[in-house]
Amino acid sequence: MTLGTDAKPDGIIFSAALLLCAYLIGDTLTRLLQLPVPGTVLGLAVLLGGLALRSGPTAELERVSGWLIRTLPLLFVPSAAGVMTQGRALSQFGLAMITALAVSTLATLIVTAFVFEAVQRSIQGRS
Questions:
Q1: What are phi and psi of 3, to 5 degrees?
Q2: Nearest CA to 22 among 39, 8, 6?
């Protein structure tokens, strides 16, 4: 996780834990009180209230949230949209897709390891 060179590890861990706690509080309240509001929305409201009382986020919280905002859409949105729109194809060809994914991932790991070793040998040879 690249959060900057001046980021404090303790502050980053605390900030990530704060975001998780806000989510869990919202989700728990939604379930216990059977509210018609998603727990994530209520968690954001809890976080907003806490930040308003504190008069803003810390630098570490800004870094962690910025990193999450930049990264999570890349990880979840395309795959979730694909699964939602291709249910029939997934049920027909799911095993073949999983096999192809596993083989291509393994091939990528192997090629990456060989390239890394070649570059490392090249760098050591120049030293």
A1: -120, 5
A2: 39
Angle between helices 9-33 and 39-54 (to 10 degrees): 130
Higher pLDDT, 75 or 105: 105
Hey, what amino acid is at 3? L
Domain layout of the chain by residue ranges: 1-85, 87-127
What's the pTM value of the predicted model, to 2 decimals? 0.51
DSSP 3-state assignment of 35? Answer: coil
10-26 per-position pLDDT tens digit: 788 888 899 999 999 99
Cα–Cα distance measured from residue 40 to residue 44, given in angstroms and rounded to the nearest whole number: 6
- 126/116 Cα distance (integer angstroms): 16
Of the candidates 10, 113, 117, the one whose C-alpha atom is nearest the C-alpha of residue 60 is 10
